[in-house]
Design brief:
The chain has helices at about 10-25, 55-65, 75-90, 115-125, 140, 160-180, and strands at about 35-40, 45-50, 95-100, 125-135, 150-155. By secondary structure, the chain is α/β, with parallel strands linked by helices.
């Protein structure tokens, strides 16, 4: 979940509502499909770990703990952080990464090449889906991250995020079933 300075506080709150809706659609729980939430900017923070909740309602409630960070949009660090969460779970099975971003990734000093980050996720058999929001998102930059062109969603504005949630969730469910 993008918490960089390219996202306003109000837009960050819209992202949180979107994540809550997605969690409800997938009925996450410690015994069924599990989820984690990472917010990122210049740093990445685990908001909710894979075992940090007791129910779908608890997961949704804990999304409120996500704090707006500001700073650079270091997607490379967010994906590396996510990979470490996958490794710590000790579970095998389908792994999905849903990247919410309001723009392109930082490529300045200290950043990792996106190809090396994608290789790391590929080694974990993680399927990446990208949801790019707004005019500062360049779809072609994210194409190497995903397995197919349909795995990238461009949303024109944050106001369009909620209305498109059910269509995105439906695609992810169908795609996840195909990945098994």
């Amino acid at each position: 979940m993008d918490s960089s300075s390219g996202v306003s506080f109000q837009q960050f709150e819209m992202e949180k509502r979107f994540v809550k809706s997605m969690a409800r659609d997938f009925v996450v729980s410690p015994l069924g499909p599990r989820a984690a939430l990472v917010s990122y900017s210049a740093t990445s923070n685990t908001v909710i770990g894979f075992s940090g909740y007791s129910s779908n309602v608890d997961f949704s409630r804990q999304i409120n703990n996500a704090r707006f960070l500001g700073g650079k949009r270091k997607i490379d660090q967010a994906l590396i952080h996510t990979a470490s969460l996958f490794r710590k779970t000790g579970r095998v099975g389908l792994r999905i990464v849903i990247l919410l971003t309001a723009g392109n990734y930082y490529t300045g000093p200290g950043s990792r090449s996106m190809s090396s980050v994608v290789s790391l996720l590929d080694s974990l058999d993680a399927h990446v889906y990208v949801i790019g929001i707004g005019p500062f998102f360049t779809k072609s930059l994210f194409t190497p991250m995903v397995r197919g062109p349909g795995d990238i969603f461009w949303i024109p504005s944050f106001n369009d995020l909620a209305p498109r949630q059910s269509r995105i969730a439906r695609y992810l469910r169908l795609s996840a079933n195909a990945c098994k």
